[in-house]
Amino acid sequence: MTMNKFGLHMMVHTPDWTEAGARRVFESAKKIGYDFVEVLIFDPHTMDAAMTARLSEEYGIGVATGLCGKLSADLSSTDPVIAKRGEDWVTHAIKVTRDMGATMLGGPSFSALHRYMLPPSELARERAVDAYRRLAKQAEAAGVRIGLEALNRYESNFITTVGQAADLCRKVGSKALFVHGDMFHMNIEEGDIPGAIENVKDCLGYVHVAESHRGYLGTGNTDWKAFFGALARIGYDGPITFESFSPSVLGPEMAGLIALWRDLWSDPDDVAAKALAFMRQHVRDAATAVA
Questions:
Q1: Residue 12 belongs to domain with CATH number
Q2: pLDDT of 150
Q3: 108-134: pLDDT as tens digits
Q4: Residue 183 domain-assigned?
């Protein structure tokens, strides 16, 4: 039997982490059978960690967190002032993650969610290694691990493949850092998804499952058998989170940020329930195939 725990991304239900929105996510996760929820930290300075920890305990559902950088606090910037703000941004997110009772902070903390017009500089890459060495020490002290989520080329220029994420993890050389793989982005950027997964088996620590068009799992062009088969072959037993977005949930501004122009579902509970059944079945089938 699989040891994977399954998570539900908060934005399947809500873009706002108020207590009312948070309760909807925790209630849905508990009702459907998810093990934890992923909370996106929009601003680590204003996030209500105590409320999240309280609801997590109330519902008996765990928490993982995610973080994006921003243009004014961007670890990938060549401007040392902006890069330092980016490092401070992650430092605060580590503390918020700890205070929520979570142990994993994923997402693209290395850059903003932005269409960059130039490739990253080598200077920025060197600075990022130094910054993540310092952040890894802070994370270790807090009992937290930091994941580097590879994004597609339209949303970042700094880490767009899981191999690039693994390269940074290996250069930092700390177990507090891991690769965060996301199938939506991998489907765009990786030429050989099973091969890419196998090449980062020493670093892979967290996985987002999302369909190629962000809709119901199994209704896009993703080769899920190949994906879950690769996870099984490397013995991946880490967490797997379902992530799907709908403009009717996110609202026009946030949907526009990720270029989500079609509404492929309107019932959060239905898409989440079918996703959990889909993921569990594929994990079981893949485990049987490699046994």
A1: 3.20.20.150
A2: 98
A3: 999 999 999 999 999 999 999 999 999
A4: yes
